[in-house]
């Protein structure tokens, strides 16, 4: 095996090994239960550093992972005994060109960086709804946001990317250069290389928006669901909401996070029917745009353990939401987990005008539902959390009569990589040596990508025939 000093000499960035005092910080992730004991972490400064890291991993037959924001409930950005390329320390800059309305964003940047820099120019793009999420994973896997009603998905607004591929090439991907690679990265995830820079289309944006939380007691569920059903049928381009079922101060509640791209007066008029339902708290107000994507931050802080599971629901359903409320109360009372179920009512009309074949991401979208289980202590509770999440998903799908997809939004699916169940395979919290591709990884990818899977296989064969990149819905080359 090559000495790590060879890697140190080959890169301009920082190389961290388990002997370094900063190693624990280097492998820390948003979800503590996804941390892995890497052999080496490389904080890259340039695409050439990424090339050197890839070649080192391949020469030494080491597994490889890429960390942008590290904000994922699966081990996509961590790897046991392997090489991690970390873009977050140096490759995190944001440059806005107001003449072209384009944003040049490093692969290690966070959405907070993009939101704050772009709005200085009165601009914005479709980004994540939690601003400490990295741009990389969200952009490669789809990307819903508050501005989706106007501009579609995040992938619909990626105009170009710089990609380091498995053979060490540094390629520009856009409609003119390497168009097959450009197609693949817009929804095909991290299967084709390391994206060191994204170029996003930016749009004029109000400096302030109407947004915030309104809290309701469980007895208001039927009113909320009936109103939501009618509202969502004719949803406007400048409105969206997230409905959260959770437990606060020991009591199950329904929380509406409202968004309207306008003034408080406009927003309150727009949501008057919802606000007329009796509620126990109203925190919706006019806020600076750059604060919008921070509103959920406190509920998903770094350093806890998390398990996420995605599903979807074609039509809002009061009976299943009430059952979810009851389940949340039971789980919270047991004391092991803090449960939250998010019903994401983004305006999907623009995103659904894009043809299925235009990107790998499947359209025909219906609202996503995200089950989140958070806890503070033993990472081994991940297996228990997975079982509880399955119970939530079964409740959500109970009245959908076959309209729900078999697999949810791919960025909400944590169990693509790992042991037979996608999770740890030993009881030793520091022993990940048995981690491996789930036996059914190919079947999961087929479900995720649907009719686009065969073309993705062809692109995979061109750019990564040896399955070097395999941490997120791995695609079998063909």
UniProtKB/TrEMBL annotation:
Origin: domain of life: Eukaryota
Family: Belongs to the oxygen-dependent FAD-linked oxidoreductase family.
Disulfide bond among keywords: no
Keyword entries, A-Z: FAD, Flavoprotein, Oxidoreductase
Protein known as: FAD binding domain-containing protein
Cofactor(s) it depends on: FAD
Domain FAD-binding PCMH-type: 33-205
GO MF annotation list: FAD binding; oxidoreductase activity
């Amino acid at each position: 095996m090559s000495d790590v000093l060879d890697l140190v000499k080959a890169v301009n960035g920082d190389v961290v090994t388990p002997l370094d005092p900063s190693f624990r910080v280097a492998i820390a992730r948003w979800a503590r239960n996804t941390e892995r004991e890497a052999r080496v972490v490389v904080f890259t400064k340039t695409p050439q550093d990424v090339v050197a890291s890839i070649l080192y991993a391949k020469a030494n037959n080491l597994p490889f992972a890429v960390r942008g924001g590290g904000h994922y409930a699966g081990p996509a950005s961590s790897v046991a005994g392997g090489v991690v390329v970390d873009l977050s320390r140096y490759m995190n800059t944001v440059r806005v060109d107001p003449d072209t309305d384009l944003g040049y964003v490093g692969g290690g940047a966070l959405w907070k960086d993009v939101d704050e820099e772009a709005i200085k120019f009165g601009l914005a793009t479709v980004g994540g709804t939690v601003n400490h999420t990295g741009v990389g994973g969200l952009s490669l896997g789809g990307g819903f946001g508050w501005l989706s009603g106007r501009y579609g998905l995040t992938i619909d607004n990626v105009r170009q990317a710089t990609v380091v591929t498995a053979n060490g090439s540094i390629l520009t991907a856009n409609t003119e250069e390497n168009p097959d690679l450009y197609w693949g990265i817009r929804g095909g995830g991290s299967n084709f290389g390391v994206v060191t820079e994204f170029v996003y289309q930016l749009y004029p944006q109000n400096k302030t928006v109407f947004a915030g939380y309104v809290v309701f007691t469980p007895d208001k569920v039927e009113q909320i669901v009936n109103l939501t059903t009618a509202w969502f049928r004719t949803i406007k381009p400048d409105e969206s909401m997230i409905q959260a079922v959770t437990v606060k101060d020991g009591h199950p509640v329904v929380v509406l996070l409202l968004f309207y791209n306008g003034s408080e007066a406009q927003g309150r008029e727009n949501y008057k029917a919802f606000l007329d339902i009796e509620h126990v708290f109203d925190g919706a107000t006019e806020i600076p745009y750059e604060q919008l994507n921070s509103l959920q931050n406190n509920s998903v802080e770094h350093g806890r353990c998390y398990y996420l599971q995605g599903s979807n629901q074609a039509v809002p359903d009061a009976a299943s939401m009430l059952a979810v409320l009851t389940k949340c109360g039971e789980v919270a009372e047991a004391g092991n987990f803090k449960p939250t179920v998010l019903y994401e009512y983004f305006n999907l009309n623009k995103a659904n005008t894009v043809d299925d074949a235009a990107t790998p991401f499947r359209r025909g979208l219906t609202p996503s539902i995200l089950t989140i289980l958070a806890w503070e202590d033993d990472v081994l509770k991940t297996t228990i959390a997975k079982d509880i999440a399955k119970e939530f998903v079964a409740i959500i799908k109970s009245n959908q009569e076959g309209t729900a997809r078999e697999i949810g939004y791919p960025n909400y699916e944590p169990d693509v990589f790992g042991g037979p169940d996608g999770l740890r395979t030993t009881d030793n919290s520091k022993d990940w040596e048995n981690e491996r591709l789930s036996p059914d990884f190919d079947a999961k990818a087929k479900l995720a990508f649907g009719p686009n899977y065969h073309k993705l296989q062809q692109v995979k064969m061109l750019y990564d025939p040896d399955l070097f990149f395999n941490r997120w819905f791995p695609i079998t080359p063909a």
